[in-house]
Amino acid sequence: MVIKVFLASSSGSTAIKKKQQDVLGFLEALKVDYAPLDIACNEDNRMWMRENVPVEKKPTNGIPLPPQIFNEESYCGDYETFFDAKEDNAVYAFLGLPPPPGSKEAKEAYLLENGPVENGTIVNGTDDAEDEENLEAEEENIDDDTLKAPVKEEEAQEEVEDEEAKGEDDQPVSEEEEELRQLEEEEEEEVTEEAEEEEDE
After folding, report:
1. Fewest C-beta in 10 Å: which of 32, 72, 75, 77?
2. Whole-prediction pTM value?
3. From 21-25, 31-35, 185-189, the region with the lowest mean pLDDT
4. What is d(CA 121, CA 131) in angstroms, rounded to the nearest whole number?
5. What is the spatial distance between Cα 143 and Cα 131, in angstroms, rounded to a whole number?
6. What local confidence, expressed as pLDDT, does residue 161 receive?
7. How many other CB atoms are there within 10 angstroms of residue 6's CB atom?
């Protein structure tokens, strides 16, 4: 399956150029194979795009603006629907492609299909041996964080405070700070000794 992105290489609109760059950049980041098809230099591309965008998706003037995205012959959407899918972490579904194993979209699809996972067991699912084998195979694609019980907020806060306290004790001390600390300790000792002497009198 090839994703076709219809573009206008010589568009005078900076908004259209930005939208085209956004779509292509995101597809490249996801390593999705796509074919950029220029409608400015190729009349066949322009006519094909205009004919294959569904009527309900065309603007009131009837001429769809680039970028328009297709999976082979199947219409996926324009920039706005692509952006919505991107925000919802559903770009692969938008493109009609299976999400790669380990991706956030694959994990969400797995959870929708099989139900939530708690301590390695599917909740509200079946427990037969086949499902057990499938679960073990799929767990490799799910981060350990989804299988662990959430840590209580208080425990997390205590861990942060402990780390901060360790960090303060482990900090290297400059000579000036060490001298200052010694002077303060000596002054405290003198004050303590004077107070003891006054009590004895």
Report:
1. 72
2. 0.55
3. 185-189
4. 10
5. 19
6. 57
7. 26
Q: What is the pLDDT of residue 138?
A: 54
Query: In this structure, what DSSP letter does residue 161 have?
Result: H
Predicted confidence (pLDDT) per residue in 92-140, tens digit: 999 999 988 887 777 777 777 777 666 555 455 444 445 555 555 555 5
Whether 4 contacts 34, CB under 8 Å: yes
Nearest CA to 5 out of 32, 41, 39, 35 is that of: 35
Rounded to the nearest 10°, the torsion over CA 107, 110, 114, 120 is -40
Residue pointed to by tokens 């901060």: 164
Rg (CA), the chain: 32
Distance CA 100, CA 92 (A): 9
Provide φ and ψ at 117, rounded to 5°: -110, 125
Contacts of 39 (CB under 8 A, 6+ apart): 6, 7, 8, 45, 46, 49, 66
Cβ pair 20, 84 in contact under 8 A: no
198 SS3 class: helix
| HEC string for 70-139 | EECCEEEEEHHHHHHHHHCCCHHHHHCCCCCCCCHHHHHHHHHHHCCEECCEECCCCCCHHHHHHHHHHH
